[in-house]
Specification:
heterodimer; A: 11 helices; about 75% helix; globular; B: elongated
Amino acid sequence: MLAATVPDVVTFALCAAVVLSGGIGVITSRNAVHAALSLVATLFGVAVLFIEQHAYFLAAVQVIVYAGAIVVLFLFVIMFLGVDRREDIEREPLKGQRPLALLFVAISLGGVLAMAAASNWVTGAHGVAGSTTAGGHTDTYLLGKSIFTTYLWAFEITAALLVVAVVGAVVLARRPSRVHDTSEAPGALPGAGGAGPGPADGEAARGGAETAGAPPAPTARTREDEMRPDQPAGVGSGAPAGGTTGPAEGGTR
Amino acid sequence: MSIAPAWYLGLAAVLFSMGAIGVLIRRNVLVMFMCIELMLNAANLTFVTFSRVLGDIGGQSLVFFVLVVAAAEVVVGLGIVVAIFRRRSTTMADDLHGMKG
C-alpha cells in the first residue's frame, strides 16, 4: 500500500469526525428530529468516504437513497406522528441496562479490533465478480455489469422484495375504514350501535389532535377552553377552532 | 495513494458499535431504526473497503443490495410504527408491553 497523500489524510480525518459526531448525535439526541439530522451528517460522511475509495456510483446512490429518501421518510413519520417532543433520556427504566450495554458493546468492539490486529485483513481469496479496474472502465460500468450478470437473480429478487415492501407498507399504514365499522356495529348489537361510533369518533379526534399537535400551543389552549366552558370568550374561541379543525382533518385522511 | 484499509475498517467498527449502543439504550422506536441504519452504513463501509483492497467489484454489488434491503426495511418498519402509534399513541418501546406475561 502506497503512502497516503496529505489531501487523502485530511479528507479521511474530516469525514471520520463527521461520521462519528453524527453517530454520537443520533444516539444522544433527545429530539428525534435532531437525531435524524445527525443521521444525515453521518450518511454524507460515509458517502464522501465512498468517493475516497473510488466507489462513485455508490456515493451518489447513498446520498440520493439514504439522505434523500430514507431520512426524509423518517422526518415525515416524525412530523406526521407529532412525536418530535423531547425524550427523557436521563430516566433509566431498567436499572443497569446502560452500563451493561456499553460494557458488552465495548467488549465486542475490542474483540473485533483485537482479532483484526492479530490476523491479516485480506484473505487473498479470488474475486468472483470481476475486478474493480478491469479494462479501465469506470466503477459504474463494472458495477452494472456485475449486477446484471453475476447477481442478476438477486437483482430480480430485490424487485419482488420492493413490491412486497410497498404492499406491506400500504396495508400497515391503511386506516381501518370507519364506514365498515358503522355498518357492522348496528347489525351486531342495536343497543351499542349508537354508542359505538361515539368513542370511536372521540378517539379519532383525539388522535387527530395529537397528530396535528406539532405546535403544542393550540392543543393546550383547546384543553383550557374545555376545562373552562362557562366563560363565553373561551367557548367562542375554542368551539369554532374545534369545529373547523375536525372536518379539515377528516378531509385530509 | 490512499488511506490504509485498517483505518476504514476501524472507523466502520466504531460506527457499528455506536449503532448497537443506540439500539440497546434508546427507547424511541424511530431512533432505534436510525441506529439500525448506522449499523448498515458501517457494514457498507466495510464492504466498499474490502472491495477496494481485494480489487473485487462484488463488494460494491453487495452494498447496492444492502441499500435496497435498507429501503424496504425502513418502509415496512415505519409502517409498523405508524400502525402501532394509531393504537397506542406512543413510539416508546417501554410502553409496548402487550405480550408481557
